[in-house]
Amino acid sequence: MKQNIQSITLPKRKNISLARKIFSGRSKAGETVAMNRLHLEFNGKPWLPSMGEFQYSRYPEEFWEEELRRIKAGGIEIVPTYVFWIHHEEEEGVFDWTGRRDLRRFVELCKKHGLWVIVRMGPFCHGEARNGGMPDWLFGRPFESRSNDPRYLFYVKRLYNEIGRQLKGLTFKDGGPIIGIQCENEFMSSAAPWETTHNTAMLYTPVGSDGIRHMKTLKKFAVSAGLDVPLHTSTGWGGSPIDIKEFLPMFGGYGYYAWLDDPSIQGPSGFFLFQDMRRRKDVYKTDEVPFACCEIGGGMQPFYKNRPVVPPESVEAMHVVQLGSGSNLMGYYVYHGGSNPVGKHSYFNEHRCPRISYDFQAPLSEFGRRKPHYGMLRRQFTFLKELGGILAPMEASIPEKVKSIKADDTRNPRWSVRSKDGSGFLFLNSFQDHAEMRDLKELVFKVNAGNETLMFPPGGKGFTLKKGKCAILPFNLEMGGLLLKSATVQPLARIVNKGTPHYFFFAPEGFPAELAINFANVAKFIMKQGKKTEFGSPTVITCRPGTGNLLDFTLEDGRKVLVTVLTDGQSRNFWKSEFAGQERVFLSGNGMLFGKREIELYDVDTTQMGFSAYPPPDRKPAGGNFKIEKNGIFQKYSISVPRKSIEPEIKMISDGKFSLRIPSGAFNGAEELYLQIDYIGDTGSAYLNGKLIHDNFWNGTTWEIGLKHFAPSLLKGELVIIITPLRKNSSKVEYTCMAAMKDSGGSGGQLKILSIKAVFGQKISMRY
What average pLDDT score do residues 423-431 get? Predict the structure, then answer.
C-alpha cells in the first residue's frame, strides 16, 4: 500500500517578548502567579495547568472533601466553581451561606488539598440553572438586568460584597487558593429563560448591554469587595466584549448541542479541527493574550427534547485538539457532576433540563463515579504537569492542507505541531462528532524543523491512526542528558528514583512503539524486549510496550536514564504521586487516593482490588491480606474483597410506579450504594417521603442514583420510582457517535422496566 506522507515546514517566527506581565499577583509566602502574552507563569516559570469545574452548591457539603480528593487524584490543579445568585438570595435581602451553600468552607477545603480556585461569581451564570442563576425577584423590575442601570448595579454590588465577606483572607495575595475571578458569563452573547413566566413561549433574561463599560464596572465591584486576584477572566465566545488589558478571554467547545430542540439538525461541529487560535479574527488582538479554555465539554447535560450520549473518547480528543491549537489553560465544564438543590419556592433547574440531576456525563459523575474519560484525561493531565512548562512557550503551526479540512472530512489526517527552537510535539486526532470516521493507514509525518527533518514513525514505515483516536508525539525532547529525536509514543511522566530519572511513555493503540534516540553520548545500552536499528543517526529502538519494558541508558559522563513504554490500556490506569517519601507511579483499574503513608482504593461491584507500584514501597502494607507478586518492573499488590449484595424490597404499585425499601444495615461497610434502573420510557422520578430527590431523562443509558446521599431518611422510609411512557410519536435518532431522543409530542407510548438492582461501592485502605 502506498504511504500517505504528510509534511510541514515549521515557520521562522520572531521571539515573542514575554517580559511584560499583563496580570500578576504575589502571595504572602512569596509565590507568584502571572500572565504574559503567551502563557501563564507560576513562580516565574511557564505554567500550563488543568482546570475542572465542581459546583459546590450542587453537591452535599458532607461529601465535598472526598470528591475534591478524587478531583486532585485525577490530575486537576484548579477548581472553578459557579456562585449561583439564586442559591444564596432566593428571597430578596436574605442571604444563605450555610450547608451546601457554604462557599467559604468549600474554598478552605480546596486550600487544604492543594487546589487553586477560580470563583465564577455571576451575577449571571447560566449553567442550566433557573434564570441562569439570577433570582426570581429580579423579574418585573423597572430596569434591565445585566446593564449599567444604577438600580440593577445596587443589587449586584450587594451580592459581590456578600461574596467578598465570605471569601475574606482566601485570595492568593492573602495566602489563600483563589487565583482568579470570573465576572458575568457569556455576556452579550447568551441568555436564559425567565422561569417565572410559566408558559411555553418563555421570556428570556437580557443578553446584556453597555459592553466593556459594564464588565469594568463589575470588576471594580469585585476588587472593592476584596476580591483582588492575579487573574480576572471572562468568557470570550459569541462576540462578548472584552478589554484584554482588564480580562483574560476564556474559550471552550462542545461537540453535542443539547440545547437544540431538534438533534437531527446538528451536523459535525468544528471543535475537532486544529486551528491556530492565537491568529484568528476576533473582537480583540488574539496574539496579545494566551489562548485559554474554561469550558471544554466534559460531557453534556440532557435537555428534554435532545438527550445526547457523549462518547468518552470525544472528551480526550477535544483536549488534544485544543492543546494542539495553542491552548495554554485547559479547563473542563463540568469535571464533576452534581444535583440541583431545591429552593423554598421552586426548583432551581432550567425547565428544559431535569429538575435535580446535573450529572452532565462528567468524568466524575453526579455521585462521584469514575467514568472512562476520567482515566483518559488523567493521563493527559499527568503529561501537562510533567511537560506543560516546556509546552507552554511553544506556538502552534497548522499545515496548509489541514487548515482547509471541513468537519465532515473523514479522509484527510488532522494534525498540528507546537514547537520552539526546533523541539516540540506533534498532535493527531481522528475523532469527529456526527460523522463516521475511518482508519487512516500507512501514515508518515515529516516535520522540517529548519536544519533537520523529523520522521514519525522514526523507522519510516507507515502506521495506522485508528478512527476515534488521538495522540501527542514528542520530538527533540531532552531527557536527563539523553535526546529523544522523535517517537510514536506519548509522554506520561518522569520520576527520580535514587538519583536516576525514569521516563514513562505509552504507545497509543495501533501505533508502533518506536523511539529515535541520539546515541552520540550513550556509552552503554541495555534492552530486554525489542530491537535496535541503526539508521545512521539517530538510532531507532522498537520495543514491546508493557510493564516489563525497560530501556536502560548509561551516558558517557556516567549518568543513567531509564525509559519504560506502557500500553494504551495501562496508560488509562496510570497514576503518579508522592508517597512514603518517594515519587512513584502506579497502575490500577480501581480508583486511588493518596495520603502520606496510606493508599485508599475504591471501586464498584468488584471482588478484587489492587495496584502495581514502581518503585515498590520498602515495607509490606498493613490493613489486609494482600497478595504480592512481580509485574515486570512493578510490584503488584492485590486483595480479594467480598462482593456485597442486597435485594431491595420492590413493590409494584401500578404501571411505571413502584416502591423500594432498603434493608437496615445496607450501608454498613459500604463506600456507596448505587441504585441502577434500566428502563425504556420518557422520564424517571424518585421520591423519598413524598419529596423529589432525583430524576432522569431516558436516553438508553442506565439511570443511577447514589443512595448514600439519602441514607438516614431512606432507611426509615421507602423510595417511590415513577417512570412515564415514551411519547407515542417520539423517535430515537441514531448517529455513529451519538444517540439522541427527539420528542415529537403525542402520548401513550412504550414503557418497560428492564432491571432494577443495587450495587455496592467499596473502599479499602493500605497503610505503610
Answer: 98
Residue pointed to by grid coordinates 435532545: 306
Interval 494-545: pLDDT, tens: 999 999 999 999 999 999 999 999 999 999 999 988 899 876 689 999 999 9
- The whole-angstrom separation of Cα 348 and Cα 89 is 12
DSSP character string of 11-34:
---PPPP--S-SEEEE-TTS-EEE
Q: What is the radius of gyration, based on Cα positions, of the chain? A: 26
57 backbone dihedrals φ, ψ, rounded to 5°? -75, -5
The amino acid occupying position 291 is F
Overall residue count recorded for the chain in this entry: 768
Quickly count: other Cβ atoms within 10 Å of residue 749's Cβ. Answer: 15
Q: Are the C-beta atoms of residues 348 and 499 closer than 8 Å to each other?
A: no
CB 49 within 8 A of CB 77: yes
User: 243 by DSSP, 3-state: which?
Assistant: coil
Residue 188 CB partners (closer than 8 Å, separation 6+): 207, 208, 209, 211, 238, 239, 240, 241
Strands 248-253 and 231-235: parallel
What is the pTM (predicted TM-score) of this model?
0.97
Contact predicate 622/734, CB 8 Å: no
Q: Around 628, how many Cα atoms within 13 Å sit in the side-chain half-sphere? A: 12
Domains, the chain: 43-390 (3.20.20.80), 651-767 (2.60.120)
Residue with cell 512557550: 393
Q: Please, which residues have CB within 8 angstroms of residue 463's CB and are 6 or more apart in sequence?
A: 442, 443, 444, 457, 488, 510, 511, 512
Q: Write the Ramachandran bin of 629: left for phi over 0, alpha for psi from -120 to 50, otherwise beta.
A: beta
Q: Is 410 helix (H, G, I), strand (E, B) or coil?
A: coil
Nearest to 219 by CA among 245, 239, 191, 192: 245
Give 81's Cβ-side CA count (13 Å radius).
28
Contact 388, 48 (CB under 8 A): yes
Q: Where does residue 499 fall: left (phi above 0), alpha (psi -120 to 50 degrees), or beta otherwise?
A: left
Give the β-pairing of 116-120 and 78-82. Answer: parallel
